[in-house]
């Protein structure tokens, strides 16, 4: 079970309210597996939600909710990548 419920996800991403709850739950679990707490810390929840939104938007079911930027990337993934940069800034430091 994901650290984020389908209900909580839909509060922030209501554009997916017509998506199947089982699909959302599966995508939440998948996104969580790529967003470990030991790396993401306080940003984990947002990282999971952005990646889940990207997964749904790029699925055949999410076509209506897809938001793409000029470089043909969802706005969710663009924001996730920006957040990844913030999260990774402190990795590898020993002091």
Structural overview:
The chain starts with 5 loop residues before the first helix and ends in a 7-residue tail after the last helix. With 95 residues, the protein is mainly α. The mean pLDDT is 87. The chain has one domain (6-88). It is globular, with a radius of gyration of 14 Å. The protein has five helices and no strands.
Q: Which terms would index this structure?
A:
mainly alpha; 55% helix; 95 residues
Would you spell out the secondary-structure blueprint of this structure?
Elements: H1 6-12, H2 21-33, H3 37-40, H4 44-57, H5 75-88
What does this entry show, briefly?
By secondary structure, the protein is mostly helical.
Segments where pLDDT lies below 50 for 5+ residues? none
**Share of residues in helices:** 40-55%
General shape: globular
Strand content: under 5%
> Main β-sheet, in a few words?
none
| Class per helix and strand makeup | mainly alpha
Termini Cα gap: 35 Å
Secondary-structure element order, N to C = HHHHH
Look at the structure and give the mean pLDDT: 87
Radius of gyration: 14 Å
């Amino acid at each position: 079970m994901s650290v984020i419920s389908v209900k909580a996800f839909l509060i922030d991403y209501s554009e997916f309210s017509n998506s199947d709850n089982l699909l959302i739950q599966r995508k939440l679990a998948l996104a969580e597996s790529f967003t470990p707490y030991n790396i993401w810390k306080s940003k984990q929840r947002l990282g999971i939600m952005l990646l889940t939104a990207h997964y749904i938007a790029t699925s055949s079911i999410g076509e209506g909710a897809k938001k793409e930027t000029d470089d043909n990337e969802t706005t969710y993934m663009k924001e996730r990548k920006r957040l990844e940069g913030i999260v990774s800034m402190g990795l590898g430091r020993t002091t």
